[in-house]
Amino acid sequence: MEPTEVMPIVALLSIVTVEFGGHSLLMFITTRRGTLGELRERFFRAGHAHAGVLLVMSLVYFLYLPRADYSNGLEWTWSASLLAGVLAQSGGFFVHLWVGQPGARSVGTALTRTGALLIAVALIALSAGLIGAL
């Protein structure tokens, strides 16, 4: 199987989990106002929003990846890097929500930054491949 056939399915199914997260956030806000606290609610929203936007971006990524003329192995590498980055970046907000303190770094902060780096690598790789295929 090609990565551009499998990974969009993973992304689409992941969007369903983002929808469930949105429902959970809505339930916290409307039925248990104040139980999360301002910091945790802010990080919950940030993680949820980043996950949704980045997963939709990944669907566009997978449309363009075959045009870059990479080998099957490199397509798997860049696809995995992108989705791992999406999970790490958005997941880092949730980790910080659980273990972080106001104004302090945590393992969640490091995870979010690592995710951003993985996403950047995947996007630069796609850009380079598209330029090379011109």
From TrEMBL:
The chain crosses the membrane at residues 6-31, 43-64, 76-99, 111-133. Keywords: Membrane, Transmembrane, Transmembrane helix. This is Integral membrane protein. It comes from Actinomadura adrarensis.
